[in-house]
Amino acid sequence: MFYNYLIVALRNLRKQPGFTAIKVLSLSLGLVCSILVLMHVQYTRSYDKDFDNWQNIYRVVTSITTDQRIDSSWIAEGIFNPLLQDYGQIETAAKIVGTNGLFAYRDVAAPNEYHWVDPEFLSIFSFDFLQGDAGTALTDPNTVVVTESVARKYFGQEDPMGKTLTLENRRDLRVTGVISDLPSNTHLDIDIMIGSPTGRQIVGETFMNGSAWSLYNGTMAYVVIPDPASAEAIRADFPAFIQRNIPDAQREFAVSLETTLDLEPLADIHLSPRQGFAAADHSRRLVMIGLVTFAVLILISSCINFANLSLSQMQQRAKETGVRKTLGATRYDLLTQFLVESMLLTLIALLVALPVIYLATGPYTALTATAFTFADMFGSASIASIVFFVTLTGFLAGLVPALRMSRFSPTAAISGKRDGGKSSRLIRSALTVVQFTFAVVLVILAIGITLQVRHLNNIDIGFNRHNLVVLDSMYNPRNPEQFNYDAMVNDLQQHPGILTVGKVSQAPPLNGGYNPWRHVNWPAEDSRPVSHLGVDENYLDAMQIQLLAGRNFSQDFPADYMFGPLDPEETYGIMITPAAVRNFELGSNETAIDQILMLGNFSFRVVGVINDFRLSGGLEDTLRSTSILRASRQPMRTLLIRIDPAQRDSALRHIDSVWATHRPDAPIDREFYEQSFSQQIYEETNGINRAAQFAALITIVIAALGLYALAYYSTERRTKEIGVRKVLGATARSIVELLSLDFIKPVIVACLIASVLAYFATGFFFEQFSAQASVSPLIYLLVIAGMIVLSLVTVAAQCIRTARADPVQSLRSE
Questions:
Q1: Residue limits of the MacB-like periplasmic core domain (predicted)?
Q2: Using CA atoms in the order 71, 72, 77, 81, what is the torsion angle rounded to 10 degrees?
Q3: Omega into 523 within 30° of 0, i.e. cis?
Q4: pLDDT, tens digit, for every residue of 451-479?
Q5: CA 88 to CA 96: how far, in whole Å?
Q6: pTM of the model
Q7: How many CB atoms lie within 10 A of CB 480?
Q8: Phi, psi at residue 108, to the nearest 5°?
Q9: What does the radius of gyration of the chain's CA atoms come to, in whole angstroms?
Q10: Distances in Å between the alpha carbon of 709 and those of 10, 419, 716?
Q11: Whole-number Å distance between alpha carbons of 814 and 803
């Protein structure tokens, strides 16, 4: 029986090759997009699952409340030891802190990111040790574990084991382990690991072992809890844990911040919005949600196309259906027959889609920063998912037409007096409305995303982002004799193309420390955490930030500057922004001058008010805006060099020359701030931007194909009606208008519905940004007009051909 169904299906498909081609093409487009996104989702779900025991690994995370809720991946180190004491269910625990520095071996010297880790970290994560032993590699001081690529970078073809890698020309580290490079599907980005015992030998026993409950300096903690029920019990007990263990001296402030702890499963970390102690980064989750949404809309549009075209063929298939019922076919038999046709078309569409997927995998993975391959489709887990997915697509695409056609009564079907009736025409119109609604929403959303990206790149960030070079001096305060810092800064200024050289404690887009400040008259519990940076007196000129009131830091006021250990008896100088004026209730910019703010026990006098500015773009919020600038005489690692655009090339050559003179031991690390600013926006928005544009294009193509096929079939069916109208005096123009109106009405309805949906969709996207663009009503009108014109062009040729046909030919008897 199934064989007969298959033969009939093949014959029916062969009868109308044009309709069959359009059905296959639209389904293929839907399958290409959907399978790529399905592979993306499976790749994302595989993150960190290559580690043994991944189900039982958790990251301890923190949340606090300031002027907003901050969900951080960092912990205050003071919680770590009490955590192990209170919860015996924790099998293993370890801390990790990331940083960067200059490493050297013989004549090879290069900066590299590295991590300080507790030795237990190597037992939590099952790194693939090519050389060395995970149990002992970092237990001794002055030892280091490197990845295979780092070993090649510094040691070439030499055996790295036992070799000495020098950190910052100061500390010799013996290589005690080499691990395989980590796979791309892990949240860990580790090249070099140095044990915390080494850090304690350098700094002291407080290294990665502080006692503060409200000080966040980049430390993350991972724990292994074998029993999921125990993990849930620990999470539930965290509020009581804080009450039990927080020192009395810190309790008031921690409580005022509403400090909470949680356990984040390892498998959830990749899409987690927690990014250090900064604004939550929802970009990965936003891109994933966007891609899945776009893929679903495209696939639904493909299925609608299939169903709409099948319903338009109901009259042609009606006699076939009636004869089959007369000969004893049941409704179940007819359902099976039509679903077999649907499945066959879907299989053909899959075969057409496979080479396209093969070609598109590379560009797609590059766009989405993923690393799956075409071959991954044929893994045991992936192939099962894809087979189920394709089968479900074929079933859903053919279900509505199969149900409609299997309900025909034999008498009406054989008489050929109906094409499915008014209900079928309403269903076809409704499907067309839904299809074009998707298309219009995606077009407007794509335009909105493009406008948002342009807005972020052009927004006033409070300073001149152009012609500003950010230079990493690689200054290490623990090794101040490594090079002559002051001489290098002085030499940099000896060029007419270099206008100013400013110093800052952290490179943008970082905002420095984030600590509790308060007005001198406020109690400690009223402290308000804000971002603050250490700078010198040239910072404002280098950034070209406007001074609104008061004065800049000046060497004429030595009391402004911090140098060495802070003295609680001194009052240092700070400059603040209008946001800080409002935050600390200082009145106007002028009245804020000379008022005192406190950071712990240390006093700071407001000497100037500068305009608000932000150092980063992309998915940001107010946390990323610096509010306070502190004056410091200490050397600072980052140099901000304002150059004359007319002498740009010679100024850059001068910078390189000065670097080569003072830092021949390290490659230069400089970039234009504008490039890093735009790159951040690009990385956070490019994926969703390109996906929306592509989804809009594909959906429009599918909708246009479907509309053309419907126009072709409908005009062919109405040939005799058109002949009668022409005999009775109708002009070709009136006939074209009549035929076109039937197709344009659902498109107009779709545009009106889509405008409302697009308004909310773009609004949701814009809410992810603190600096929001807007979509002009003119954009909506242009998109609607464009969609109507596209629809008219799609059906016009067929309508004109039918309207011009000779009525003698159309009125011939069958």
A1: 20-238, 429-647
A2: 60
A3: no
A4: 888 888 888 888 998 999 999 998 888 77
A5: 21
A6: 0.78
A7: 12
A8: -105, 120
A9: 34
A10: 20, 16, 11
A11: 20
